[in-house]
Each structure stands twice: as C-alpha cells, then as structure tokens.
Specification:
mainly alpha
Amino acid sequence: MSEKTNDYLDGTLGFWPRANLRMHLLLCKHCRAFVGQMQATIRFIDRHGYTLMPEEQPSQPLVEAFRQRAATGGAPAAGMKPDAADASNKGEDRCSQPNG
C-alpha cells in the first residue's frame, strides 16, 4: 500500500490500480488512516513550506540503521531496540488485505 500511495496522491496511478486502491481503502481503516496522514502532511507542507536544513540531515549511523532495517525486511538493525509501535502492535494493526 505505501508503495502505491505516492502515485495515488500525485495522480499518476493508472485507472485500474487507482480503482483497486480505492476499493481497498473502503475496506481497510488502517490504510485509510495512513493515506489521510499523508494527505495532511502534504497540505501542511504546501501551506507552510519546508526546507531541510543542513543540521537537520540524518546522521550517518541513523541512515545506515534504516538501510539495514530495510534490507532485513523491517527487522531492527543489530544493537537497535524495536520501537514502541513495533512492540505494541505485534501486527494486529497492520493491513491484512492483499493490496495493502
């Protein structure tokens, strides 16, 4: 779902993928909330603007931890503790739909 959200919000998703995603959003409150959060973020940035300042760039260890986590399918990087959302959700709030 998250992979398709940018294309959906940008208006670049094709007709059938967009129709499938909309159907999914009708059925999945978690994905509706995710898309709603993305829309709110986009509106906020459009209204207020945002430029990443050099001192706001993520540190190299943080970037490496995220890269390692992505490479391991979402498992925390070695030496990193799972975040609170990972520990509290244990998957029950995640989308169980095939398109999600």
